[in-house]
Specification:
The protein is α+β, with helices and mostly antiparallel strands. The chain folds into 2 domains: about 260 residues, no CATH class; about 55 residues, no CATH class. It is about 40% helix and about 15% strand. It contains 17 helices and 12 strands. The strands form 4 sheets. A 4-stranded antiparallel sheet has the order 2-3-5-6. A 3-stranded antiparallel sheet has the order 4-8-7, sandwiched between helices. Helix 10 packs across helix 11 and helix 12 packs across helix 13. The longest helix has 18 residues.
C-alpha cells in the first residue's frame, strides 16, 4: 500500500478496516494458490462462540488470496474517504486503486487488479455464528460476497483493463464501519513489508483485539499453530509446511519492529505460537473527532480525518460551516465537509467575504449568514449538472441522471470535461457511465 500523493513519506497515516474480515481470515495471506483450490471450510471458537466459515470461489478465479488483501483494504479506505455512503456504493478510477495498492500503472497491473476485483466479487462466504454485528451487539449468521456489485467501464478494445470502477460493499460490512467497528492499519508498516507479511500483520493485529470489547488490544498473543494457519488461510494442514510459510514472515515482522519476540513451542499439530508486540498505534484526538461527528460525519471517517489531517480539522470545519452559513447546500454534506478539510489551504475553497483565497490561519469566527452571498461559494449540483448535460449532449446524458451524483463528483467531472482533449473527455464519460450504472 502507498500513501495518497499529497502526503509525505514519513507521515504515518492510519487506515481502517472492519475487524471481522481479518479476524476470520476471509482472504488467504498466500501469494499463490493451486488453481484447483476453489473452496474451504473451517470451524473454531470466537470469543467462546462456536463458529464456522465457508468460502466458495470459482474455477476461473480460485479463492481470494495474496494481492486481494491489499485490494480490499484499499476499497474500505476509498469507502471511508468518500464519506461512508449509506448504500455502500462508491466509484473511483483504476489509476486511483493502483495508486492505493502501491502498484505502477501498467497493463499487467491493471489486468491483475481487475482479476482481483472480479475474484472478490465472485466469491461467496457463509459465516455461521461468527460475524460480529456491532450495531446489534450480537453474533450473527450471514452470507455475502466481499464485493456485492462490481461495474467496470473500459474502452472497447481494452478487454483486460478498466478505466472506471463502481463498487457496492455488503450491508453487513458497511453497517460495522459506519458504527465504528474497525481496527487501525499502519501505513508505516505497510510500506516496510511485502506480501505475505503485510497480510499477516493485519491478521495478527486483528487477533490482538477482543471481538466484543474491540478497542481493547493485547501486548501478547498465544495461539495454536493449526488455528493460526486457519486464520491466515494457509492451504495445508501439515505443521512443517505451515512453519516454512510463517518463518520468513516472522523475520520480516521482527525486522520491522512490529513484533518484539516470537516463540514456538511443542511438537507436530500441538505446536503453539507466542507473540510479543511492540508497535503502538496513535489514536485520534477525541476533541477533533467530536467536532466532525457534530457535523454528522460517521465515526470511522471522523477518526480517519482527525488522524490524517489533524492540523486542518478545526480550521476546515470552521471554513465548511462558514460556506454553509452563506447558503451553499451540497448534495452530500459529509463528503463536502471532508473535502474542505482535506484540501484546506490549497486554494480549492475560499473564505466567504475575503474575495481571495486564504492560505494562512483564518479567524475562528464564522461569517454571518445575513451577509450577501459571495461569488467564491462552490457551484451547486444543479449548476454542475446543467453544464455537464450541455457539454455531453452528444453522449445522451441527461441532467436528471447527473443530479443523482454527489456535488463533489460532479465538480470533478466538470473539471475533466471542460476544455479537455478528446481522450480525457472519453475517460471522463466512461467514469460517468460507471457511476450512473451503479446508482
Amino acid at each position: 500500500m502507498t500513501l495518497p500523493v499529497t502526503k509525505t513519506e514519513d507521515q504515518d497515516l492510519v487506515l481502517r478496516e472492519d475487524l471481522n474480515v481479518a479476524h476470520l481470515g476471509l482472504i488467504s495471506i498466500q501469494r499463490k494458490i493451486s488453481p484447483d483450490y476453489t473452496s474451504w471450510k473451517v470451524t473454531f471458537e470466537r470469543a467462546g462462540v462456536a463458529s464456522e466459515v465457508e468460502c466458495n470461489g470459482t474455477q476461473k478465479y480460485g479463492i481470494p488470496h495474496g494481492t486481494d488483501n491489499d485490494t480490499y483494504l484499499a476499497l474500505q479506505e476509498l469507502y471511508i474517504e468518500q464519506g461512508c455512503p449509506e448504500d455502500g456504493i462508491f466509484a473511483f478510477t483504476m489509476y486511483r486503486l493502483l495508486q492505493m495498492c502501491g502498484l505502477d500503472d501498467s497493463g499487467a497491473n491493471r489486468r491483475m487488479m481487475r482479476e482481483s476485483l472480479e475474484r472478490l466479487s465472485a466469491t461467496q462466504y457463509w459465516i455461521s455464528g461468527a460475524w460480529r454485528s456491532h450495531e446489534d451487539d450480537d453474533w450473527v449468521t450471514v452470507g455475502f460476497r466481499l464485493i456485492e456489485k462490481l461495474v467496470l467501464t473500459r474502452p472497447r478494445r481494452d478487454v483486460d483493463g478498466a478505466k472506471a470502477i463502481a463498487v457496492t460493499l455488503p450491508r453487513e460490512l458497511i453497517r460495522n464501519i459506519r458504527n465504528g467497528y474497525f481496527k487501525p492499519v499502519s501505513t508505516t508498516l505497510l510500506r516496510q513489508l511485502g506480501q505475505p507479511a503485510r497480510a499477516t500483520y493485519r491478521v495478527l493485529d486483528a487477533l490482538r483485539h477482543d471481538p466484543v470489547q474491540f478497542q481493547a488490544k493485547t501486548v501478547s498473543l498465544q495461539i495454536s499453530l493449526m488455528d493460526l494457519a486457519q486464520r491466515c488461510g494457509i492451504a495445508t494442514d501439515r505443521p512443517d509446511k505451515i512453519r516454512r510459510t510463517l518463518d520468513p514472515i516472522h523475520v520480516d515482522l521482527l525486522k520491522s519492529g512490529y513484533l518484539q519476540d516470537v516463540q514456538i513451542t511443542g511438537r507436530g499439530r500441538r505446536q503453539t505460537v507466542l507473540y510479543q508486540f511492540s508497535q503502538a498505534v496513535v489514536e485520534a484526538d477525541s476533541d477533533l473527532v467530536e467536532l466532525l461527528v457534530q457535523l454528522k460525519v460517521p465515526l470511522v471517517a471522523a477518526r480517519k480525518a482527525a488522524l490524517d489531517h489533524r492540523e486542518n480539522v478545526r480550521d476546515g470545519v470552521a471554513q465548511a460551516k462558514a460556506i454553509l452559513a452563506r447558503g451553499y447546500r451540497p448534495q452530500n454534506d459529509v463528503g463536502f465537509v471532508l473535502d474542505v478539510i482535506r484540501s484546506y489551504g490549497n486554494g480549492k475553497y475560499t473564505w466567504p467575504g475575503t474575495g481571495s483565497t486564504v492560505t494562512g490561519k483564518p479567524a475562528r469566527s464564522v461569517p454571518s449568514a445575513t451577509v450577501e452571498p459571495v461569488q467564491d461559494v462552490p457551484l451547486s449540483a444543479e449548476d454542475h449538472a446543467r453544464t455537464l448535460a450541455f457539454l455531453l449532449k452528444s453522449e445522451g446524458i441527461q441532467r436528471d441522471a447527473l443530479l443523482q451524483l454527489p456535488v463533489e463528483v460532479l465538480s470533478d467531472l466538470h473539471g475533466r470535461v471542460l476544455g479537455r482533449g478528446a481522450e480525457e473527455r472519453a475517460m471522463a464519460v466512461a467514469l460517468l457511465r460507471a457511476l450512473l450504472a451503479s446508482r
